[in-house]
Amino acid sequence: MTAKLRPLPSPRSRALLPRGLAPSLGAAALCAVAWPTLAATPTGEAAAARAKPGATTAAQQSAAAAGELANLDLLRQRLAEKLGATAPAASAHPGVMRVTNPAEGGADADATRASPSRSRTAARAPATLALAARAPGEAARPPQRRGPWSYGGENGPASWAELDPAFGLCASGRRQSPIDIRGGVAVDLEPIRFDYRPSGFTVVDDGHTIQARIAPGNTLSVGGRSFELQQMHFHRPAEERIDGRGFDMSLHLVHRDAEGRLAVLALLLQRGDEAQAVVQRVWNDLPLEKGLEQPASQPLDPAALLPQDRGYATYMGSLTTPPCSEDVLWMVMRQPLSVTQAQLDVFAHLYPMNARPLQSAAGRLIKRSP
Ligand SMILES: [Zn+2]
Question: Which residues span the domain enclosing 29?
Fold first, then answer.
């Protein structure tokens, strides 16, 4: 152990930081929603902008950097003296400070961060910072929790934020989902314009839900924006409530616009006499193993999921799974769809419970169709 501390990055070297690992929409990515905007700003893009040659000369920059380094050396020395001979844990990337983007890894918009290895990697860096910041004499903190997030047990919803620094919003966020949709203001909500068509898809059991990844070409438009359908997935029981009422299941249709903003259309599923044809299409192509992407034998028409009553409630919320990223536009259709007991049983066999507990609406504006 030595007291030598690693160099901190200067503003210029920060520009060399790796960008957030924005998952692609390709078949290889386990999550179906990429986060180009969220992942690129404010870390990557903003840092790159700052690094562009400006009015200062190379000599000025060099002198400034030298001065900054000298100051940092002094700071490090003082810190080292204060800490005694405590050195931070070894880093695989000396001199590189990891910038954690809350949306990184951004799994499914709400369902699918199925990459435990990446979680573990991300969890290491803050341990270094925590160690360096520890006061003299303070006992070592217990190691950060490890392992994939879940809906129960010690890695359940109450612990999500402790599993990965990127999951912080799961605990600290103030605009989280799901919520009980009650109260709110009744207004003439603009009808959502759906442009859905029969489309190819694949089905994946990602370890947290069953997800159907839909081929491009399906959009919904609202508020002057057009969002393209990426994937749909299921929760049991329904995560959202309406005026306190719960439902057997819900189906989340995750959409993304050209700037990377997310809009989720939530459909409520309730046991009834009629089978739901689109749900059945997904069930027919369930993969036999987790993680396998099963191509569907026939196309699926998302339009066949839309209830007759197009009334809905809308509010701003978050992903309901880690990393719990916010700024997600939610639209919850108020008329439930009928699914049969047999259809419910299929999902219950795989996922008896995969719903995040209700979050506080915390004074958010909820608008509802009258
Ligand atoms: Zn969901």
Answer: 11-154
